Every structure is written in C-alpha cells, then in structure tokens.
Amino acid sequence: MHSTVVRPKPATSAEALAHFQRLMAFETDCWDVHYALNHNLQDFVLLDVRSLDTAKKGYIAGATLLPYPTINETTLSSYPDDTVFVVYCAGPHCNATEKAAVKLARLGRAVKKMIGGVTGWIDEGFELISDV
Questions:
Q1: I need a labelling partner for 121 at 20 to 30 A (CA). Which of 81, 89, 93, 112 fits?
Q2: What is the pTM of this model?
Q3: Is residue 82 situated within a structural domain?
Q4: What are phi and psi of 34, to 5 degrees?
C-alpha cells in the first residue's frame, strides 16, 4: 500500500525540471526580492497591489502602491515597456496578486508574483513601513 504522498505517482525528473523551471518564470520569493532591494540589484518595479487602507497598515520599503483595480495603460504610462513588475498582496489567502498579474499581462507587461506576499515577508523576519 502507498501513501497519498506518492499517489498519484510523482512526475519524472524531466517533467519536474520543466515544471519548476517554468514556475520560476512566474514567481519569485520574499528573500530574493529583499536581497535585490538591499543590494542595489533592483531591476524590477515592486508593486503593492492592495488597497490604500490595507497598505497603510504596513508595506515593503521600495514598493509602489498601485491597487490592482487601478492598473491600466494610464497608470503604467510612466514605466518603459520592458519594465518587469513584481506584484504582491496580503499573502496566500489573497488573490489580488493574481488579479494584478492578469491585468499587467493583458497590457503586454512582464510580471512575476512574489509568493507569500506581506505574510511571507513578515515570516522571513523582514520589516514593513507605514508612512502612507
């Protein structure tokens, strides 16, 4: 008898490699974002896509507040077309990140999700600021 862990059968190593490489094209994590922000390696725009009221409780230093309902060609017009956007929201229980990513992709923009959002950021021991 097999556990539910190995049922269904795991993917082959080639399938796993393709899957995880592809996944990393769509996602980054809090640690990598924090490192980039703190080592002058920020080759992306970090977008906090939560509401202003929520962001007032604390956001990531260096992030730009752009609530997902406001994402459109006009609000993005100051960014070059080749800008890479990294989006985050409250955390795994929130889908504002996915909503923002869909809007950005529909507008032809490169986008990655910061997995974990604010919850992940805090779990990593990183600080938020609240001067909005």
A1: 81
A2: 0.91
A3: yes
A4: -60, -45
